[in-house]
Amino acid sequence: MPVFDFSSAPAEKEAFVCTYTTFLSESAAKSAADPIVVLDNTEKKWNHHSLGVFTNQNQWTAFEFKEEDEVFRTNILRVDARFVNLIKWLGENRISVVLSGKNTESGYAVYKIRETANGGAKLSAADGFLQFVIERLLSSSVPEQEADEEELDESGDSMKLTSIQSISDYLNCAGRTMPDNIRLWARRNLAVARSSEVSAEERRHAQRALSVMMNIQWKNNYFEAIDPVEARRILDEELYGMEKVKQRIMETIIQINRTHTLPAYGLLLIGPAGTGKSQIAYAVARILKLPWTTLDMSSINDPEQLTGSSRIYGNAKPGIIMEAFSMAGESNLVFIINELDKAASGKGNGNPADVLLTLLDNLGFTDNYMECMIPTGGVYPIATANVKEDISAPLMSRFAVIDIPDYTLEEKKIIFSKFALPKVLKRIGLQQGELVLTEDGLDALIDQYKNTSGIRDLEQAAEHLAANALYQIEVDHVEQVVFDEDMVRKVFA
């Protein structure tokens, strides 16, 4: 009968204990004073640049330093809450990294993590992927679920998630930076893209949709306060006069300072062609510090251009609205909808104006190709139109309407002489004094465009005048060209 000797049995394994605490940080840049992670340095001071790997966080919350032929293990003391999943994932996969940090009284403060090719596993896209993930985490807020728990200029800005492996890695490392519904959607589509039980076309569509969605930075709808002085300066820089219009715009966007959210209504700018409606829209985007995209409703004949097509078709693709999010690279942006008064003139199946209503309600937008609800709380719509009567009442009710008046003849004179003409002269390199426009010459020029709206024609007139002067200077070798009334009428005859 066999005899079992238990005298040499190993002692009971010590229970796992997490050695670190998490801290909350909203900083977009890391330093020794506000690090990613803090490691214990009481037994040994660590080098500024240190090579090693994070351990499996389910076994020991530590980092293993590799120095020459020795390995030193030290506990993790503190972690930025945003980076818990990343450090866990790096440890599980034994990714070899270089830490950049500084020895402080509280420990070795790590402010940069880079992948190294010095042994160990490799990331899906090398260090570019790691920097991409880190930048996304730094620009994100602390996930609610986790709130309780220099030398080398590396950048992940150009990184794109396209391969199945890189998308999977990103979900593991930084999935919490995305809204819950999008994260679940991504998991489902990743399963389709990997499945051998679906057609190659279905896998291709799933991977394409994932690539579009994963490369968008999903931000919250919290907006920083706007400096009213700077906002007014931008408006004055872009627009001459229109004091009432500027005041109305300021009143609308300054609401952000009280609510820290976008105004409930977008802006609808209505006025004659050439009065600077698009310029106002770009100025507001500058004030909000948001990327912008344009939707030209005159070129949209079918709602499917906005909503995308179903994946049942081989040539299916996302709609213009989804592509706008993708091009911007983030979920907070300004949608500039040009010629809103033509939105109801669709020639296909349905009305493009109806699609816009779902975008403007800020309740979320669903693209037929993506098959997922896209949060639109960070979208600010600015529409332009020439004719108010051609806009439907439902669309009109989604905007704060601002009427843009045409410029008076006196305003046109000032705009031409102080803004349009000097701008052109500077661009083509004409020196002060080489072109002189007399007072009667200016009156004659403005009279040429007294029946046209806006200042677009005046800007073209400035180009014509400057080109004529440059020709005379270069070909006829004159030192100065004077445009009086007769000369102006001759040039514009």
Q: Cα distance, first to last residue? A: 121 Å
Please give the CATH class of the largest domain: Alpha Beta
Beta-strand residue percentage? 15-25%
> Biggest sheet: strands side by side, in what order?
2-5-4-3-6-7
Explain the overall architecture.
- The chain folds into 4 domains: 126 residues, no CATH class; 37 residues, no CATH class; 176 residues, P-loop containing nucleotide triphosphate hydrolases (Rossmann fold, 3-Layer(aba) Sandwich), CATH 3.40.50.300; 83 residues, Helicase, Ruva Protein, domain 3, CATH 1.10.8.60.
- Helix 3 runs antiparallel to helix 4.
- Strand 11 and strand 12 form a beta hairpin.
- The protein is globular.
- It is α/β, with parallel strands linked by helices.
- The protein has a 6-stranded antiparallel barrel. Strands 9-10-13-8-14 form a 5-stranded parallel beta sheet, with helices on both faces.
- It has 17 helices and 16 strands.
Overview features:
493 residues; Rossmann fold; six-stranded antiparallel barrel; five-stranded parallel beta sheet; disordered N terminus
Précis, in short:
With 493 residues, the protein is of the alpha/beta class. The protein has four domains: 21-146, no CATH class; 178-214, no CATH class; 228-403, P-loop containing nucleotide triphosphate hydrolases (Rossmann fold, 3-Layer(aba) Sandwich); 409-491, Helicase, Ruva Protein, domain 3. It has helices at 84-92, 126-138, 164-174, 180-194, 200-214, 228-238, 243-253, 256-259, 277-288, 304-307, 320-328, 352-360, 393-396, 409-428, 439-448, 456-475, 485-491; strands spanning 21-23, 37-39, 49-54, 62-67, 70-80, 97-104, 107-115, 266-270, 292-296, 333-338, 365-367, 372-374, 379-385, 399-403, 435-437, 481-483.
